[in-house]
Amino acid sequence: MPSVEPDNKPSWADQVEDLDDDVDDVPTTSGSSKVDAHITLSDEELPPPEEVIDGDTKVITEYSINDEGKKVKIIRTYRVETRKASKTIARRKAWPKFGDSEYDGPGPNPSTTAICDDIFMTFVTNKEEALNDKEEDPMAKLKGTRIVQCRICKGDHWTTKCPYKDTLGPIQEELEKSDKPGEPGAAGAKGAEQAAPARAAGGKYVPPSLRGANRGPGESMAQRRDDQATIRVTNLSEDTRESDLQELFRPFGAISRIYLAKDKVTHQSKGFAFINFHRREDAARAITGVNGFGYDNLILNVEWARPSNQQ
Amino acid sequence: MKPLMLQGHTRAITQIRYNREGDLLFSCAKDTKPCVWYSINGERLGTYNGHNGAVWALDIDWQTTKVLTAAADNSARLWDCETGKQLFQWDTNNAVRTCGFSYSGDMIMFCTDRQMGYNPTLDIYDIRAGEQLANNAPLLSIPIEGPKVTSAVWGGLDEYIITGHESGEFSQFDVKSGERVRNVKIHSKQINDIQLNKDRTMFVSASKDTNAMLFDADSLDHLKTYKTERPVNSAAMSPRMDHVVLGGGQEAMQVTTTSTRIGKFDARFFHLIFEEEFGRVKGHFGPINSVAFHPDGKSYSSGGEDGYVRVHYFDPQYFEFEFEF
């Protein structure tokens, strides 16, 4: 009957024992005698392998010299199992070995067969859910943090010639917080704020100035006015920058915000922008002043910004 | 599970096969000596010495009396399974890429490469007929025009031979007439392996185009696709559960063999019907070239480019795993 796989074989490191302490003395002598000493040692002191069968456990103890010249004792534990098999299988088990295995003893030859460490099948389930979570999290993180910060007023804009970029800090924060991913246009964003309450990571306290529907009256007035003082500029050239727009529209009045629509990937201008003035009459003058103006070989189109699909 | 690692080969494994009862596991490699092992404990029974080149494929008849091997030394040889003696040698013009016993065990087929101006041919011999062997006169010799055959199996009831080509197409050749009965092209790159299921009604094909596909063996209807990101070298269907195992090819990532003693190349398990991957088993140090299920479905083996054959006996979790749908 076949002898089966060794049972619970501990790591080989536990098994290897250093038997002979005399070996340590040998290196002090000269090279040749060291070799001699090893040979004589191995001849007389290496015991023959032993095999002990205890019930259904077979323990084979072998002695040998390992690479460092130290004697090692290798203990292999096998569990002997008796299995019933069909006649043909049993007959095959009794076949004599041939070819390269002709001189192998019964049982597995350690040079050809080894038991590996335990490995487990890693089960993969519901990959889709994991993917969705991963996609959402980075976006959420990004929206919460501030990407740009002005050195002068700590607002959410580039420092370039700040004078607060004519903003009040809270207004900027509201704009960023309620700016949903992928929504173009400042006017659209502002409209969204009014409709949807601005809420930080669900459950946190939101100061009245930042709340959407329940905002304090003072802030909403500023908001609405800004909305009415928003103009849309189209037919901009691709390499127009916010600074160009700032220069272009500054003469007409104090600018609250400039939003230049850019392609998310290439960061090139999409050709249109929204300018928020503080006062409506400034915006009106800007329209009359810039509409039809030739800028960088393109005729600019300036008009009142229509609020996006919010009420 | 504690896999058995069989280290009998010095070069990459090309194919592994179980015999019909599953107690013997045969492996052939790019070194010249196919080995046979007892699958229960990994003990090597013997080797078949005689080939002079890489052995690309082997097959065993259903009675486990004869072994057929196909090698790159331009020969296909028939061996006695028990003693390892060579029974017969077919000399061909080219390296023999694939071979197989018919279901009945009476006929064999093998297919050659295209090189040195010779076209690949699919030869069928009846090994009971002494004259055929003596005169090198095959029962049927089918020349293959077009892309060469990279893998072939006998179809359901030994009526035809299904061949997979370098281009990704499948052909069915009628055994009686030698005609190409059907031709289907769904894979886009070379077919690496074709394996039938237990009742020989379907087969799964592994292709370099990173997909494995399930086909009906009679009509060559494409039934399912199993997608991965690496070329699939071999695929096999479990005779017990609705699972398919895929063994894959080149990895883009670097393998650091010093980090752990366990290799990073894995065999992937897919559900046969839902086409979704549900498990992976790591262990090989190189791409897996051949996978085979034990006929009782309780274990499987994989042979890799690293020259090792690993025999895995499944844990109870594998059988209890229920695919949620």
TrEMBL record, chain A:
InterPro entries found in the cross-reference section: eIF3_g (IPR017334), eIF3g_N (IPR024675), eIF3G_RRM (IPR034240), Nucleotide-bd_a/b_plait_sf (IPR012677), RBD_domain_sf (IPR035979), RRM_dom (IPR000504)
Subcellular localization: Cytoplasm
Low complexity bias (residue ranges): 183-204
Coiled coil location: none
Keywords: Cytoplasm, Initiation factor, Protein biosynthesis, RNA-binding
Domain RRM as annotated: residue spans: 229-307
Region Disordered, annotated ranges: 1-52, 175-229
Pfam family, one: RRM_1
UniProt xrefs under PROSITE patterns: RRM (PS50102)
Family according to the record: Belongs to the eIF-3 subunit G family.
PANTHER family: EUKARYOTIC TRANSLATION INITIATION FACTOR 3 SUBUNIT G
Name this polypeptide is given: Eukaryotic translation initiation factor 3 subunit G
TrEMBL record, chain B:
Description of how the protein assembles with itself and partners: Component of the eukaryotic translation initiation factor 3 (eIF-3) complex.
Role played: Component of the eukaryotic translation initiation factor 3 (eIF-3) complex, which is required for several steps in the initiation of protein synthesis. The eIF-3 complex associates with the 40S ribosome and facilitates the recruitment of eIF-1, eIF-1A, eIF-2:GTP:methionyl-tRNAi and eIF-5 to form the 43S pre-initiation complex (43S PIC). The eIF-3 complex stimulates mRNA recruitment to the 43S PIC and scanning of the mRNA for AUG recognition. Component of the eukaryotic translation initiation factor 3 (eIF-3) complex, which is involved in protein synthesis of a specialized repertoire of mRNAs and, together with other initiation factors, stimulates binding of mRNA and methionyl-tRNAi to the 40S ribosome. The eIF-3 complex specifically targets and initiates translation of a subset of mRNAs involved in cell proliferation.
One GO term of the biological process aspect: cytoplasmic translational initiation
Major site of localization recorded for this protein: cytoplasm
Ranges for the WD repeats: 6-47, 48-89, 184-225, 281-311
Family statement drawn from the similarity comment of this UniProt entry: Belongs to the WD repeat STRAP family.
Recorded name of the encoding gene: LOC118409441
Record-given protein name: Eukaryotic translation initiation factor 3 subunit I
Organism of origin: Branchiostoma floridae (Florida lancelet)
InterPro entries documented for this protein: eIF3i, WD40/YVTN_repeat-like_dom_sf, WD40_repeat_CS, WD40_repeat_dom_sf, WD40_rpt
